[in-house]
Amino acid sequence: MMKSTAGSRILVVEDEPQMRRFLRTALSAREFEVIEAVNAREARLAVTSHPPEMVLLDLGLPDGDGIDFTREVRGWSLVPIIVISARGREDDKVEALDAGADDYLTKPFGVNELLARIRVGLRHAARLASGNQREGILKVGPLYLDPERREVRIEGQPITLTPIEYRLLLLMARNAGRVLTHQQILKEVWGPHYTHQTHTLRVFMAQLRRKVEFDPAQPRLLMTEMGVGYRMHDE
Known about the structure:
Layout: E1 9-13, H1 17-29, E2 33-37, H2 40-49, E3 54-57, E4 60-61, E5 64-65, H3 66-74, E6 81-85, H4 90-99, E7 103-106, H5 111-130, E8 138-140, E9 143-146, E10 151-154, E11 157-158, H6 163-174, E12 179-181, H7 182-189, H8 198-212, E13 222-225, E14 229-232
Parallel strand pairs: 1-2, 1-3, 3-6, 6-7
Antiparallel strand pairs: 4-5, 8-9, 9-10, 10-11, 12-14, 13-14
Helix pairs in contact: 6-8
Protein name: KDP operon transcriptional regulatory protein KdpE
Domain OmpR/PhoB-type: 135-234
Pfam families: Response_reg, Trans_reg_C
């Protein structure tokens, strides 16, 4: 059984006092333990001295860029990182996600949206820690996936997938709730020489949706992050 998120330690890396106060108030009210850093130097110290279970990271820090901080942390830690930034361009989102961020919220955003993303990120981290993404049965919404038996069911009904479709669905299920960029998916499923074949990915995602979605035109499981990639809905 997955533990409650209450009491989870969250590092807020944000130099704007008003936003930092907003996040501290919202998170403390939900019984999260909040630690704060106003720049990259303080964030590095906090990550190593008081290891958090999640990082909320602004990209525009006074002593560096949050994307560089993300790459640095990803070199030795799998802690979930949610970028919270005023930068709303698709290129910025893709760069942050490719650097290792788990999710991206564009300011301004609501408390409920933030809390939903935090819950998903903590669940994903718990699956990684328990090893379920390697060996155990994966259950996400109507999806049941047994990697050991290569068995896939939707609402209890078995479905047949091609090898590529299976690898694509398995990758999405293992990262349920996390945004995966086109490049990340293509590299994992097809290989490093196919990272620009976004049309191929769209074709296979459309095929996969026809098999796992009740209404492929309005997907509820395999969601598109416009211009960025895809996310398996996990809420």
